[in-house]
From TrEMBL:
<keyword id="KW-0378">Hydrolase</keyword>
<dbReference type="GO" id="GO:0006637">
    <property type="term" value="P:acyl-CoA metabolic process"/>
</dbReference>
<dbReference type="GO" id="GO:0006631">
    <property type="term" value="P:fatty acid metabolic process"/>
</dbReference>
<feature type="domain" description="BAAT/Acyl-CoA thioester hydrolase C-terminal">
    <location>
        <begin position="84"/>
        <end position="228"/>
    </location>
</feature>
<dbReference type="InterPro" id="IPR029058">
    <property type="entry name" value="AB_hydrolase_fold"/>
</dbReference>
<dbReference type="Pfam" id="PF08840">
    <property type="entry name" value="BAAT_C"/>
</dbReference>
<dbReference type="InterPro" id="IPR014940">
    <property type="entry name" value="BAAT_C"/>
</dbReference>
<protein>
    <submittedName>
        <fullName>BAAT / Acyl-CoA thioester hydrolase C terminal</fullName>
    </submittedName>
</protein>
<dbReference type="GO" id="GO:0047617">
    <property type="term" value="F:fatty acyl-CoA hydrolase activity"/>
</dbReference>
Length: 251
């Protein structure tokens, strides 16, 4: 019988994983602009937990509730680094990776690149992202979100910043390249070619930049998929993702 065990992570939330004492390959799951309340990152965590991973879906957006996604404004990336350290200290933890989709993908790439730039210890042992941008994006306020064409729709305000590092957003304005080429560990990139929200050209630019730096990420461009994989495409995406995480994080 399939079992997933939830274990409290004091001060942070819950982890999900197999029964037993481990150590287990571990994945921190980073949600997108839908926020932690949507449950999407928890669904992803449960899928990974069912395949033998200890997972931690971290909620990093500010505020929000079941009707409102919350904000990605001046989010301290240092907190993510702290959470990685907390995960590594667990007796049931093995190697630790990051997985994020959309703004979570941006988060994963950005925090990894900053840790690598600053020669910090505790870098993720692998990073996997879907629908990632190649540059830093602007702040997101859930209560202000409208579909294009709706009354009140507006483009991102480039003066509002999404992230901070070491207490400041200086150096992290929108359109700044995410220098993930500084990271030398295993990297997984995927993107739907029919994505109407964030163009797959961003992942192609990441791939090409990594190649120019002598790196060889695993890249999957999904011909018939949009921003988030659906149907059999979702099943295939999870098979590839799980294979990558088992190969790079397996104990």
């Amino acid at each position: 019988m399939l079992r997933i065990v939830n274990r409290p992570l004091a001060g942070w939330g819950m982890t999900y994983g197999p029964p037993g004492d481990g150590p287990f390959p571990t994945v921190m799951v980073l949600h997108g602009s839908e926020g932690a309340w949507s449950g999407y990152s928890y669904l992803t965590a449960a899928i990974l937990a069912a395949h033998g991973f200890l997972t931690f879906p971290i909620g990093y957006s500010q505020g929000g509730n079941v009707w409102n996604a919350g904000n990605i404004v001046d989010v301290p990336l240092d907190r993510t680094v702290e959470a990685l350290g907390v995960l590594r200290a667990l007796p049931i933890t093995g190697r630790v990776g990051l997985y994020g989709v959309s703004r979570g993908a941006e988060h994963a790439l950005l925090v990894t690149s900053l840790m690598a730039r600053d020669a910090m210890s505790g870098l993720p042992d692998a990073v996997a992202v879907h629908a990632a941008p190649d540059v830093i994006c602007g702040a997101f306020v859930g209560a202000e979100w409208r579909d294009a064409g709706d009354p009140g729709w507006q483009a991102w305000d480039p003066a509002r910043r999404a992230w901070t590092w070491r207490g400041t957003s200086d150096g992290l304005p929108p359109t700044t390249a995410i220098e993930i080429e500084r990271y030398r560990g295993p990297l997984y990139l995927s993107h739907g070619l029919q994505d109407a929200i964030w163009s797959a050209a961003m992942t192609m630019r990441l791939r090409d930049r990594l190649h120019r730096h002598g790196l060889d990420p695993e890249v999957h461009l999904l011909a018939d998929q949009g921003h988030v994989p659906e149907g059999e495409g979702e099943n295939a995406h999870h098979r590839r993702l799980i294979a990558f995480l088992h190969r790079t994080l397996g104990v």
